[in-house]
């Protein structure tokens, strides 16, 4: 409003000055200049009074779930009504974290369409906040402005860290060895199509008698619920989880903790994707994640054919929940593990955090002793070095006790993994060149 008053004030002041000069000196040149000024003022009045009305802005995206590293193409359509031709129209579309501006020349058109791209945004949840439209006369004077509320949103998934099969909890030697010594447990579901060799302790009602008659050997039918293994993935969201053991809050900058947390999110995403490829059924655990999973599992649009074939809708919903996670000062990881002890009991669990602390060691040891299976992924020092050498990682961690704790957990059957140099390495599989106490 102030801008419009200023424009009209300047225009009327110019016209008044020319009129005063004309009355004092006269002349055809001043008369012509006054005539042009009146035309400009009349055109500005018409543009502001009869400018675009009933403006409608529509946005469309090929899909609303975007894999990490891809640009987001947005198609913008503008519909309006106006009895006058518009020389120009400036459109600025605001979205979360930025905006895009373009100048159009509608003329007599009342429907405009153009496309722009948001260049490879980082993971997160994005929304279109508003669309600001400006128009005016031929020389850009006496502008009109309208802000249309934005609609629509899209999700950028985190980039999954390449996680090899040897780093997944399902491939941990402790699980396979203990599973071979433990008699199988059956669910109460219906018999499935898959069978395996009979193991002493199998229920008699699960014996496949037709196989016995045909092959002369006992086989056991697997129930449908047992045909797909599952494990849980829990990510630490607390700021304390990305500080080395014994460090104070002031010793670790927020930027360093944020880098470690971003690596932890990518590691959790990699575990979920690898589980989908292996035919397992992962479960994402964490404070505030379940509500996010319920809200994001049905995100329309989908992630595209390539990613959909690799993950499936369930894992895509978990990746969407991971994309909105933020580092906070909430409940520490040991307390989260104790709270979720009922959900992870008897289930293979991958815990992604920054550092393996003494408190976390005690909590995980208690869970393992009560029948749990836990693997720890340490991503806190991932940004401290670009080298995959173990000595460089140990120097970045500044915590030689990490390897002592890892050795203790390895004796209990848990796996400890470090994320550094864009790779995931198991501490128990690394040569003894790790410096410090308790190197394994």
Which term fits the overall shape? elongated
How much is the radius of gyration in Å? 32 Å
Termini distance?
72 Å
Taken in chain order, the helices and strands follow as HHEEEEEEEEEHEHEEHEHHHHHEHEHHEE
Overall average pLDDT? 74
Main sheet record: 6 strands, mixed
Number of helices: 13
- How much strand content do the residues show? 25-35%
Which structural category do the helix and sheet elements fall into? alpha/beta
Which stretches of 5+ consecutive residues score pLDDT under 50?
Answer: 169-190, 291-309, 383-392, 429-440
Number of domains: 4
Number of strands: 17
Question: Percent range for helical residues?
Answer: 25-40%
Question: What attributes characterize this protein structure?
Answer:
25% strand, 17 strands, Immunoglobulin-like, 440 residues, 13 helices, alpha/beta
């Amino acid at each position: 409003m102030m801008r419009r008053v200023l424009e009209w004030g300047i225009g009327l002041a110019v016209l008044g000055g020319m009129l005063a000069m004309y009355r004092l000196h006269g002349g055809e040149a001043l008369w012509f200049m006054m005539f042009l000024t009146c035309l400009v003022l009349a055109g500005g009045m018409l543009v502001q009074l009869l400018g675009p009305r009933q403006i409608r802005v529509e946005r469309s995206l090929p899909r609303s779930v975007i894999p990490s590293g891809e640009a987001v193409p947005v198609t913008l359509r503008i519909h309006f009504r106006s009895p006058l031709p518009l020389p120009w129209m400036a459109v600025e579309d605001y979205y979360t974290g930025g905006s895009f501006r373009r100048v159009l020349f509608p003329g007599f058109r009342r429907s405009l369409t153009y496309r722009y791209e948001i260049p490879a945004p980082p993971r997160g949840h994005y929304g279109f906040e508003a669309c600001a439209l400006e128009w005016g006369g031929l020389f850009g004077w006496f502008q009109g402005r309208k802000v249309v509320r934005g609609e629509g949103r899209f999700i950028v998934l985190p980039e999954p860290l390449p996680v090899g099969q040897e780093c997944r909890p399902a491939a941990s030697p402790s699980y396979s060895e203990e599973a071979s010594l433990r008699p199988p447990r059956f669910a109460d579901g219906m018999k499935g199509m898959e069978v395996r060799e009979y193991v002493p302790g199998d229920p008699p009602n699960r014996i496949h008698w037709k196989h016995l008659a045909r092959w002369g050997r006992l086989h056991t039918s697997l129930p449908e619920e047992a045909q797909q293994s599952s494990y849980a993935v829990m990510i630490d969201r607390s700021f304390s989880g990305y500080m080395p053991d014994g460090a104070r809050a002031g010793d670790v900058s927020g930027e360093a903790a944020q880098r470690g947390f971003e690596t932890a999110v990518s590691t959790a995403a990699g575990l979920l994707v690898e589980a989908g490829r292996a035919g397992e059924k992962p479960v994402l655990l964490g404070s505030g994640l379940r509500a996010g999973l319920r809200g994001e599992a049905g995100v329309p649009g989908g992630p595209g054919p390539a990613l959909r074939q690799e993950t499936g809708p369930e894992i895509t919903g978990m990746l969407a929940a991971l994309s909105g996670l933020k580092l906070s000062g909430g409940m520490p990881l040991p307390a989260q593990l104790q709270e979720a002890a009922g959900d992870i009991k008897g289930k293979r669990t991958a815990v992604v955090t920054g550092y393996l602390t003494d408190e976390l060691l005690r909590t995980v040891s208690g869970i393992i002793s009560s029948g749990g299976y836990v693997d720890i992924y340490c991503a806190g020092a991932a940004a401290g070095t670009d080298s995959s050498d173990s000595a460089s990682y140990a120097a970045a961690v500044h915590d030689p006790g990490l390897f002592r704790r890892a050795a203790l957990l390895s004796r209990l059957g848990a796996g400890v993994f470090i994320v550094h140099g864009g790779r995931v390495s198991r501490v128990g599989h690394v040569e003894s060149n790790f410096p410090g106490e308790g190197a394994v």
